[in-house]
Amino acid sequence: MKIRTASIWVLLLAGIAAAQTSLPPNPAAPAVEPGKATLTIPVGTRVPLSLKQAISTKTAKDGDPVYAETAFPFVVDDRVVIPAGTYIQGRISRVQRGGHVKGRAEVLIHFTSMIYPNGYTVMLGGSIENTPGADKTAMKDSEGTIRQDSDAGKKAGEAVGTATTGAVIGGITNGAKGAGIGAGIGGVAGLAVGMLSRGADVRLLPGTSIEMEIQREVTVDASRISSRREVIVRD
Predict the structure, then answer these.
(1) At 170, is the secondary structure helix, strand, or coil?
(2) 4 is a domain residue
């Protein structure tokens, strides 16, 4: 009798265990979130951009916003990481006008964020590495400072031209002696004009081609990268 009772209890326990294992999962239990697929834009990556507004050291101020747009898609591991048409936003960190006697015009720009066509926004650190679309400018340092080319030769040419004009006028009025005096007066006048005028400004027109260099590693969510702009419809 005891053996039969023990067998019944064993069968009951086995049935309870089987029923528990066949129960559906508790809907209140938290689901395990799969890891997000991410892509990394490495340091030193160079991205071609097109300026969306004009920049001039004549009117620009420290802190002014800068807007640009990617001109060509950038690919990592056979996947487009930065589509063409992605907006790049930055600011002017430092601006300096050309001096009267010395000192060339300079502007330093840093890029701070990247806005994908669908609105996905990523923070970044970027600087200008090159300005292939800007005339008479060059990169001053590794920080990304754009510097206007020297116009010392132009000012010297203007002084020589003024001196020559003075010599001609002096020669007509007073002969050889007058030519010498006229040249001297013209030369002084030319130098005075050069000292009063500033050096040429850095001028970047809308559509100017520039090259941005990524200064620190940027990680993006692969599932949120899109080359299409999302249209929000409001009631």
Answers:
(1) helix
(2) no
